[in-house]
Amino acid sequence: QTHYDYSAVQRSEAARKAGAAPTWTETVIGNSSGMAQPTMVRRASGELVVFFRDRFCDSIRYSVSTDDGRTWSAPKKTRLPNNNSGIWAAALKSGAIAMVFNNAHTGRTPLTIALSYDGGGTWPFMRNLESGPLPLDQNCTCGRGWSPTGPPVDHYHKNCQPAFAYPTVSQSLPDEKLHVSYDHNRQVAVYQTFTEAWVRGGA
Length: 203
Prior knowledge:
- By secondary structure, the chain is mostly beta strands.
- The protein contains one helix and 13 strands.
- It has one helix at residues 196-200; strands at 7-12, 24-29, 35-42, 48-54, 59-65, 76-81, 88-91, 97-102, 111-116, 125-130, 164-171, 178-184, 188-194.
- The strands form four sheets. A four-stranded antiparallel sheet has the order 3-4-5-6, with no helix packed on it. Strands 7-8-9-10 form a four-stranded antiparallel sheet. A three-stranded antiparallel sheet has the order 11-12-13.
- A hairpin with a 5-residue loop joins strand 3 and strand 4.
- The chain is globular and about 45 Å long.
């Protein structure tokens, strides 16, 4: 059977030996048309859950595996919107899942971090990391980002809207701090660090 526009998972059954190439098996995730750039975490229960960017600008979707990646459920919608932009999830020591994403169906602002304490089913805690531009350089004609020295140029800012995208999130131990990096207007990388408690205190 030929598949087009789908998501799949590659897995290796055996532990890799020094100097030996692993053997990989591909599993196609059914009903995954338009689901792209997955980010996978292991739930506190041991199940694997993978979250997807949605090419249709609807919602972040997720699929679950209860057999360590051999089979996957059909993707379902979360209550988190997606604007066809990259997302990133990480499992935290507390058992929570942290997700960084654009909390919008269009545009790439705001950039938000959310916490789920039920394996990705609900996301009761959210806090915006960016919701507006940083005036990095006055050479930019829209005043919302950096542009090269010389005559003002604005070809990095679509319709003069701020864009915060392609995030990553991780947690360091033993301090349990969260670390987020992301692209700011396709010009600079921004890094923020904070605690899980800080996210829970946000709105």
